[in-house]
Amino acid sequence: MPNISYVDMELPQVQAFVEVARTASVSRAADALFVTQPALTARLQRLEEDLAAKLFLRTSHGMRLTEAGEAFLPFAVRALETLADGRQVVNSFERGGAGRLALGAAPALSTYVLPVVLKEFAAAYPRVQVSVRTGHSEEVLELVLREQVDLGLVRALRHPDITSTPLYEDRLVLVCDPSHRFAKRGRIRLEEIAREQLVQFDRTSSYTELTNALFRTAGVRPEGVMELDAIDAAKKMVEQGFGVAFIPQTAVASEVAAGQLREVEVTDADLPQRQLVAIRRRDRGEAGGAVAAFLATASAFNG
Fold first, then answer.
1. Is the pTM of this model over 0.70?
2. Is the N end or the C end of the chain the one with fewer CB atoms within 10 Å?
3. Residue range 119-147, pLDDT digits in tens
């Protein structure tokens, strides 16, 4: 920041000067500023002392600017306008109407949920510049802790230095292609799934661990597993009839709605649900501005 030479004048003094110049009257200026005439006169006197110049002459027609006052007036007006503009900008930031917002998001969230939320957010707050970084939940947690993002959108995590805002619950669902025998039946047992080709995605994902735990708990083991590195790839394989898959409901909602995939009920197991949350550093205090606006938008997402 450049070095700035400050003077002793105060905002009320400048306001008093501009109002008297506008009305040519101490009494009318005092009424406009809701102060007494002696208080307003004192402000003008202090301003003249600070500037070491007389700014007004009293005449039979009211207060008239001196040459020094005429020279100072445009700067005083500009200063008040600049402060008013600054107040408006700050208010806009506090309402979330402007600024920057850095987000971190787990892959499934960034691909299938965040675009929907950001579309609504951008429509309501077009002046907020948003950036997004993607990583697994633990990686996003580190981004939040290192203050490289303002908010992290992840599965529920525990850490003493973060606060969490619940967003929605996602659940694993079993999907197959519409011509698969599971689709015709609509209801299936876990041991029958174990005899099918199971398509999994991203072995480092928590969803893979949830799927594996589901089979371990039931005491069965899939006979064939195809491992892919992304949800989209897994969905395409299932669509082509290469197997069945447990996939987060939000990630397959559009394909199920379009009839490209069929959701099948598992009768003998409670498919796991996962709480998705927005995390931020605890020491950042209460959320405000763009962060608060985004949290309100994201919390309205119904999954």
1. no
2. N
3. 999 998 888 889 999 999 999 999 999 99
- Cα–Cα distance for residue pair 97/128, rounded to 1 Å: 6
Rounded to whole angstroms, the Cα distance separating 249 from 171 reads 6
φ, ψ for residue 61, nearest 5 deg = -100, 10
Phi, psi of 106 (to 5 degrees): -65, 155
- Quote the CA–CA distance of 167 and 275 in Å, as a whole number: 8
Specify whether the CB–CB gap between 210 and 272 falls below 8 A: yes
d(Cα 187, Cα 271) in Å, to the nearest integer? 13
Task: Return all residues near 56 (Cβ < 8 A) that are at least 6 apart.
Answer: 20, 21, 44, 63, 64, 65, 66, 69
Residue carrying structure tokens 């001196």: 66
The CA-based angle 195-264-171, given to 5 degrees, is: 105
Apex CA 162: angle with CA 117 and CA 136, to 5°? 55
Distance of CA 155 to the CA centre of its chain: 17
The answer to whether 243 touches 199, Cβ cutoff 8 Å, is: yes
Closest CA to 222 of 247, 255, 199: 199
Cα 239 to its chain centre, rounded Å, is 34
Write the pLDDT tens digit of every residue in 253-300.
999 999 999 999 999 888 888 899 999 999 988 888 889 889 999 988
Residue positions counted in the chain: 303
Q: Is 125:290 a contact under the CB 8 Å cutoff? A: yes
Closest CA to 139 of 179, 110, 172: 110
CA distance 101 to 122: 11
Count of CB atoms within 10 A of residue 161's CB? 12
The single-letter code of the amino acid at 96 is: G
Question: Given the structure tokens 């931020």, which residue do they identify?
Answer: 280
> Six-digit token pair at 105?
């998001």
